Amino acid sequence: YLGPGGRLLRPQELRLHVFHGGVEPGLRKVVWRYLLNIFPPDLTGQERLAHLRRKSREYAALKSALAARASPAELAAVAAAVRKDVVRTDRAHPYFGGPEEGHPHLAALQALLTAFALGHPRLSYCQGMSDVAAPLLAVLDDEAQAFLCFC
């Protein structure tokens, strides 16, 4: 589905292919970013990399701004609500397995869901959001990209 320079040529055909036949696990990291509209249309491979770097910087700035803007009580309440689900994430999955304390993937899941809740105060955090965000994080293996896909 990619043409010269890495541009996606037939987005509708890609969507139909995925709808009818799924995506093999090795391609999910690439395909999900298209399906979840991370990339604007017509980007080349190099432009996609630059786009991801820019979005990663924007996400880091957003997390900092949201944490600075929230009151300590609000931040603690949101973090506690998110934490209840994060520690229950599928611990049998290799990506989330191992000791809870200091686990980098659980910390990334906590951070992205907390950022989402703080950035969307009317919705905040709802039980089960971690069940949607966890596979995104496990496949993409990038907190900023998983946040974008989750949003």
Automatic annotation (TrEMBL):
The keyword Membrane does not apply. One of its GO terms (cellular component) is autophagosome. PROSITE patterns: TBC_RABGAP. GO terms for molecular function: GTPase activator activity. Keywords: GTPase activation. It holds the Pfam family RabGAP-TBC. The keyword Nucleotidyltransferase does not apply. One of its GO terms (biological process) is regulation of autophagosome maturation. Residues 22-151 form the Rab-GAP TBC domain. InterPro entries: Rab-GAP-TBC_dom, Rab-GAP_TBC_sf. This is TBC25 protein. The gene is Tbc1d25.
